[in-house]
């Protein structure tokens, strides 16, 4: 998906982070995506899991906090941890200093598209302030589909049924195309390669 017109660095005011694309799925032939994350104090994401890719975390600066399959892990610079498919995880920064870490997602799938759309919606004020969830159910369904992301708060089958139906409606109503045009330079929505 990489397009020279798209910025290499994006920011999310709700997660309180800045993400720089080190290597996109297009650049790796779809094998993986690598990003560097600068996470402000108090920043982080809610627990979630993915079914189609592994996330590899590597601390670069400061102390990276992870919850991984119910365990609290602290990574110091040079240390790594991985969240394989199906494992509930989150990252966060309870400290007073910015932390920096890298994430490798393998295979790349549509991770870059998902991040660009999610961060664009947050930047444009189209998400709920407290949760970061898109105000539009159709936008939310597109993000769940692209990120192949699920929450631990609801049974997987129910999430797939609800978000699968909403995603089909989103495609039919043009919501997915609108999001790609607005935040991804109009790319085709297939794997980011």
Automatic annotation (TrEMBL):
InterPro entries in the record: Cupin_2, QDO-like, RmlC-like_jellyroll, RmlC_Cupin_sf
Family annotation (Pfam families): Cupin_2
Domain of life: Bacteria
Domain Cupin type-2: 36-100
Protein name stated in the entry: Cupin
